[in-house]
Amino acid sequence: MRTLSDLANVLIGCRIVSRTRWERAARAGGGDPGATLDALTAHPPDWYTATPGDTAEAPAGLSEYQRGVIDLWLEGDQTPIERQLTVNQFLLLEKLGEGGQGEVYRGRQLNPPRFVAIKTLTRDTETSRARFEQEARTMMKIQHPSVARFYLYERVRDEDNKPTNEYLIAMELVDGNDLHRMVRWSGPIPWQFAVKWGIDLLGGLAVIHQNGFIHRDVKPANVIPLGPPPEAGTRPNETAAKLLDFGAVGTVESAAVSRSGRRVFVGTREYAPPEQWAERVVPASDLYALGGTLFYALTGRPPYEVEGRDAVAFMKAHSHAPIPLATDFNSNMPQKLSWLLQRMLAKRADDRGTAVELIEEFRELLPTDDAPAKSVKPVRKSKSAQPAPIPARRPLAPPETETQGALDRVFGPVLTIFERVFLPARLRPVPGTAHPFGERVASLLRQPSVLLVFVLLAALFVFWIVW
Question: Which stretches make up the Protein kinase domain (predicted)?
Answer without folding.
Answer: 90-366
